[in-house]
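ingest -> fold -> write
write: protein_1
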Amino acid sequence: MSDPKSDNKWQKIAEQADPEIEQSSASDEEVKKEEGQLEYPSRQELEDQLTALELRINEYKQQTARAQAELENYRRRAERDVKEAHQYGVSQLINALLPVVDGLVRGLESGNPEDPKIKPIFDGMQMTLDLLLKALSKFGVEVIDPAVGEEFNPKIHEAMGMEKSPEAKPNTIIRTLQKGYQLHGRVMRAAMVMVAA
């Protein structure tokens, strides 16, 4: 059996020999106190933080959706622009060729095709006009050639004047002065017409 007095005696000797033993036991007690006193946020604080995070997530989702919509709109605009560039990119060239077509048409209207001296020239001009109109039609050019009695349409016809005509209905075409042209449905030049009053 050990004597309690002697046990205390040996412990006191050990503590005097190694003072860190006492300090370590004291620091363990401090750590235990600190662990017991850790501060946790209250339930309300946690709910407030969660609400703030959810609001931020919703804002980011909305920003992402807007960015995707803008990107889709940009893609559609780019596709439309490319399509229009393909369809209407030749419009300047066509506008430059329309006076040539008009010149050939006037030349054919002014001459007598039955005159043997003019017939070869007339035939050459007619072939040139046909080739030019065929080439233009390959690029989507359509001739606007209104018939007599057709209803006047301001989208494709340009009224150069009005005349009284007993046999024509009012607001109908009585004469075409110059043919019009459109490219893929877009009017390049309206047909110049006289309209019945």
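write: protein_2
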Amino acid sequence: MKGVKFSGDGEYNKKCTAWFNNHLNPSRALLTPSGTHALEMAVMLAGIGPGDEVIIPSYTFTSTATCVVMQGATPVFVDIRPDTMNIDEVLIEDAITERTRAIIPVHYGGVSCDMDHILEIAGRHKLVVIEDAAQGLMATYKGRHLGTMGDFGCLSFHETKNIQCGEGGALIINNMEYYERAEIIREKGTDRSKFWRGEIDKYSWIDAGSSYLISELSAAFLYAQLEMAEEITYHRLAIWEEYREGLSELCREYPLTMMQVPEGKIHNAHIFYLKTGTAALRDELIPELHRRGIWAVFHYVPLHSAAAGKKYGRFNGKDLYTSKDSARILRLPMYHCMDAKDTARVIEELRSTVPSLTG
């Protein structure tokens, strides 16, 4: 097919980028092969290197830490808030040392961290803020989209996300001082983006970099999803509300707590979870629900307890909630094609299973 472009930065890449710039109002968006790649680029752009420290929650996916470790820096883990499972903003300042260069808040489940507090701390200590908004597209904090408040925002379009293309991501650059270098890092360390725009007559090797471009096939798939982003979000929120209403009585009667969304934080229904009263109850519920055809799952094993976490990072302060609460998370099925019958069946199976296990 003559003239058809399959590599990065073609027609659909540009359409997706325009969608982000129009809907999220960031300074600029760059598509990447994954959310992990977006995080890696952000850490590189922040100038983080050997001997530096970056404050992150331990309750998160490995990419939040590996992007730091790959630059020779140390992830410093901080405890979470039990209501949102997000980093406890009150504990961040105590973790800051002369080596601290950045904070990576993670918006777990599409529910925002307390960004006012985090940005205020970062401003006073001159720290870079990299929002891990992998789960946060279409969610907001006090009217601002997740990923658009820090210096950088990192989105994921992995197949597990609300809006997906199999594998994909985006780096949202909110501080334009970083944009030119971001283009260079993304294009294997060259100024080829300027060449394609006709700004220079040839491109050359300028800086360190890698191939952080998403293919046109993935971008085309993603654009079709972005065109339906509001519809997808609306439907997922309806499923979330069905769970909330259908399980409220069960949570009052038995040792279960529902996912919470604090005031001022508009979520995107990325997940719906319950917290069981004990880890033992969660571990009994999961296989029993599986036996009944309900694919309930848990989420992250805290990074500071993993072999690599112990090797490369350290936990600052006390682990009051990270380990305890992560062991009680029970995530319920949540996907766009669910209908009211599916949700009702999950609710009914929980109403039947929980009493049988709690005696």
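write: annotation protein_2
The longest strand covers residues 28-32.
Residues 45 and 181 are 7 Å apart (CA to CA).
pipeline exit 0
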